């Protein structure tokens, strides 16, 4: 259904075009970037060690439909982050679950990985339900607050242990 390929500079404009406003940027990347997203921010981000950054390809038509990362936060733990199905008309069609399965499989290739973690805003119930079905569980002490305009968003940390998934 999907394939992961390396994300590089030729993909910057596509990702930038998908991030239409500050709210979507924060949902996608937390406080990592500033709106408007630009080449300079992406170049710096891509140069960071321990990041595996992907574009997501729909195998049916070879269209780039998304973006995702697997970041090694420590020897035994990786973080799945910055997951986005870019075209809103492609959302809700099972690509998110397929993408998560590919990211989990990628993380499991490193036999040292004991934990796969992610952050998600507590109001993003479709994503939370997807993650729970895949074996992620909420960590009791992983909550953080992000502010957007006059809103307070609670980010929850979820974890899966590859052996128990």
From TrEMBL:
SUPFAM superfamilies: Acyl-CoA N-acyltransferases (Nat) (SSF55729). Residues 2-163 form the N-acetyltransferase domain. It comes from the Bacteria. InterPro entries: Acyl_CoA_acyltransferase, GNAT_dom. Coiled coil: none annotated. This is GNAT family N-acetyltransferase.
């Amino acid at each position: 259904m999907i394939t992961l390929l390396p994300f590089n500079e030729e993909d910057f404009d596509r990702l930038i075009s998908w991030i239409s406003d500050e709210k979507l940027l924060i949902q996608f990347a937390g406080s990592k970037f500033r709106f408007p997203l630009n080449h300079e921010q992406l170049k710096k981000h891509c140069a960071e060690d321990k990041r595996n950054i992907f574009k997501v390809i729909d195998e049916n038509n070879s269209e780039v439909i998304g973006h995702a990362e697997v970041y090694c936060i420590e020897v035994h733990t990786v973080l799945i982050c910055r997951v986005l199905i870019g075209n809103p008309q492609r959302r809700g069609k099972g690509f998110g679950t397929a993408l998560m399965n590919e990211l989990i499989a990628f993380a499991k290739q490193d036999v040292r990985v004991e934990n796969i973690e992610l952050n998600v805003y507590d109001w993003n119930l479709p994503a939370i339900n997807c993650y729970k079905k895949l074996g992620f569980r909420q960590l009791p002490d992983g909550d953080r607050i992000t502010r957007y305009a006059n809103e307070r968003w609670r980010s929850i940390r979820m974890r899966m242990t590859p052996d128990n998934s």
